User: Fold this.
Amino acid sequence: MKKIILASLIYSAIYSPAPFAASRDEVMSLIDELSTSGQQKNSSPSVKTAPLTSTKGPLPVKLLSTTSTATTPVAVSSSTPLIPVKTTNVSRTVGYAPTKAMPVNGVVNMDKPATGSKLATLPGIDEYLKGGASPLSSQPITVAETPDVIEPVTKAITQPEPPKIAPQPIDTPVVADISSKKTLNDNDCLGVGQGKGNLSFYDVVVMAMCNDPKAKATWLNLQQYQIAKDSSYAGYMPTVDLNTNFGHRELTQTVDKKDYKTKTESWSNTLELSWLLFDFGQREASVDKAKSELIAVEFLSLSDLQEVVLDAAQRYFAVIASEAYLEAARDIEVIAYKSLQVTQGKREAGVGELADELQAKNAALSATNYRIKAEGEVRNSMGALASILGKDITKDISFQKGLSVPSQNALNNINQLIEKALNQHPQLLAAKEQITVSEKALSVAKRGFLPSVYFTSRWGNDRPKYGPGYDSDELYMGINVKVPLFSGFSQYNAVRSAQNRLEQTQNQFVQTKQSIALQVWQTYQRLSTAESNLKNMHDLVASSSRAYEIARGRYQSGVGSILELLNTQNDLSEAQINNVNTMVDWHLARLSLASSLGQLNVSTIKSSALN
Assistant:
């Protein structure tokens, strides 16, 4: 019974308001009395504790109560590191608002105490470390006497369960004629992103399309093939050449030591015309080949622009993810310093161990280190995104919203998605068009053995100025038939090369078809896995938060160990970080699935829930 009284007095001395607080002298007096009278067994049937040992499974913990007992499973693991440090470039968590209480000049100001409560001033933790500089000063840390439930834990528990989500199917057809139906034009890029305080996902994608050199290279390459197609019509036009010749001649002859000079000047003009009349379809095949090449490059350009959009999306979510990691790191740091305050409070009251306080301090310093690394990741991801947006990498970029999970319709059947991808994916359409290009090239090569018929005409004149000669004019018109007989087997080898190229493109089409089907399957499974994990991670965060709350209360009451407190604290940290990972993976899997279906472009982002 005296132990119960002692525990109550210790608890009231640390956490109770002033009117009910026991003095330290009373507590120490009772400790001395118990020491002289010997150890007594606890006779209260309402107080039961479980041994606090490190196990791999759940540990039942009996809570302190005056009427009944409650059993709550708390996972305790000794093999888990105190602070998980992850360096993945990803995002902002949803639903877990960061606690803004941060250590400043060695002082951590926690939640406000209840009205009339007394604040206990505890010595700084640096005095327990001998030698070496510490990020915390020796100023006192103020801690409220009433053990409040921390804000992030409460918000995590009360957070509504996320809905079952999946990407909205996008039925926008693939635009084949980019030259007349471009997704972006010069007017779209004028002033994009300027004067905006917060950028949306759509703004980021448009800025990337307008400023990323890879996107510009795609358009320049497309224009090159457009010029090549226009050039292919030259075979239907005549060729006209004008030749002009002006000559001046002086001849000196010596006869009997006398020089005789003769001067001659002439001016002649020749106009020649050649027009291909018939070549057994070689010109037509060349034009068709150029048209097919342009169509294939248009589809490849769509695929390349999808890569630009996906790259911008990945960098965008990397920034938001790094900010979410920073918020989680701040929450972890606040929780760690609250645990440190609990150990300092118990030690100040004379009932805590220095070893417990040092373990809690190590965890707090590790949390601070993790938070500093998270701040560095935010700056790195900001610079990576700014580099493709035409922004100054030394300045931060703000966005309209953080990481969220909008509710969507159910996923389509995987067979339907694969069929849709095989019907409209730009890479597959480009591979199919490449077969047509190879067929036309083979047709051109075979027609190289056939004769060609030309109409030729020539007009010329000659006007001598000095010397003998007469003015002359010439006009010629005729038909020229060119029959290839032998060219060193070059035409024969051209046919062989075109045939081999056709077989290569047919094989490439099969490979592309298999690759796209596999991409759709893998991204679909990745999205399904991430979708299923969302609810699981939500439950894990809530469970870990509750477990930490219980462990903190047990340790404050003197029935829990520092190992239990730090393990549950670590479990909560891991749950928060894994929750961020899951949300980022869901967003990236959604974008990857849209890309594997060939539907990731500016227009679909603007019109769909992707924005």
Observations:
- The beta strands are 58-62, 71-75, 120-122, 141-143, 239-255, 258-278, 452-464, 472-482.
- The longest strand covers residues 258-278.
- Confidence is low (pLDDT under 50) at residues 1-24, 33-183.
